[in-house]
User: What shape does this take?
Amino acid sequence: MKFADLNEKFCNEFKEYLLTTKSNKSSKTTLAQNSAVSYFNKLKATLKQAFKDGYLTTDLNAKIEPVKQAETRRNFLTIEELNSLVKTECNNPLLKRAALFSAFTGLRFSDIKNLVWGELKYIEGNGYFIQFKQQKTKGVEVLPISEQAFSLMGERKEPTDKVFEGLTYSAYENKHLYQWIGAAGITKDITFHCFRHTFATLQLSKGTDIYTVSKRLVS
Assistant: This one.
C-alpha cells in the first residue's frame, strides 16, 4: 500500500474493524474497547509523524476521530476492609504482606517484586524511605514509607537480597489472593492492582492533595 492511497475512508474502516473484530484470546468475544483505543492511537500517531516528515500531503490524523475510551471501574478497599484483611489469614503470607505493602505505599507489583534491601534507607528524624528505579518508567524515585509499611518488610537481609523474595504473579497465586479477600468477607472484585488504587483513594479521602498523591504513586 502506498502513502498516496491512505485516506479518511480507509482509516475509518480500520477503526470499524477494530471495534468489531474478534479477540485473539477468544473467538467468542470482540476485541476489548480499550485495546482498540490503543491500536488506533498507534495508527494516528504514525499518520501524524508521516505528515510531519512529508510522506503525506494531508494531515489525516487531524481529520479522523479517535476511538472513545471505555470507562473502567477501579475497585478499592475502605479502611475497614483493609483492617479486616490485616486480621485475616492468607494461605500465602508473602502475598499478603506484599499486597498490604502496596496499599500502604502505592507501589505497583513489579516494583515490590524487585525491591532489594539496599534500596531501604533511614534518616534520623525523618524515618524510612526507599530509593529505587521503577520497572515501568525506569525513573529513580525516593518514596517515604510509614512504620506500618516498614513492619511488613520482615527481617533485614543483605543489600542485594530481595525484600519480598519468592513473590510471583500467576493464576495459582491469584487464587490465594481471592480466597484471602473472600475470607475477610469482602465481595468486591479485587486484584493486586486494586491495593495501589486503595492507597490513592485513602490518601485523597484523608485530605492529601491530588498532586502529592500523584507524586507518591510515582506512575
About this structure: The two ends are 39 Å apart (CA to CA). The mean pLDDT is 87.
